[in-house]
């Protein structure tokens, strides 16, 4: 009598592991970029909201310098305001140690004129890629 045991051979298991490894190698960077894009969208919205707060303050007080109620940022970015009497620059700086620290778009900026920019972005990256507009 011959007993047959059913199961997987070592070769079959190694093939499955190799396929999973290839899929993860391709999917992981795409997934990370998808998460980063969402985080950039969040901070872009926050910067626009802060710019509106500054514009309302300027309308009432004819200056940006003593504006209150500005956000400090979120878990991935710190918002740094540079305020003068007649102008402002809001910079969303990437927080070190977060997944956004090495983001290709660098730090996002918005000015009182509505100009959108990037500081320390990788070469070849466009404003449309990072701001989505």
UniProtKB/TrEMBL annotation:
Instruction: State the signal peptide span.
Output: none
The biological process GO terms on file are: type IV pilus assembly
Q: Where are the transmembrane segments?
A: 7-31
- Keyword annotations from UniProtKB, A to Z: Membrane, Transmembrane, Transmembrane helix
The UniProt entry, under PANTHER family, shows:
GENERAL SECRETION PATHWAY PROTEIN G, TYPE IV PILUS NON-CORE MINOR PILIN PILE
Q: Which NCBIfam families match?
A: IV_pilin_GFxxxE
UniProt name for this protein: Prepilin-type N-terminal cleavage/methylation domain-containing protein
Q: Which organism is it from?
A: Pseudomonas vancouverensis
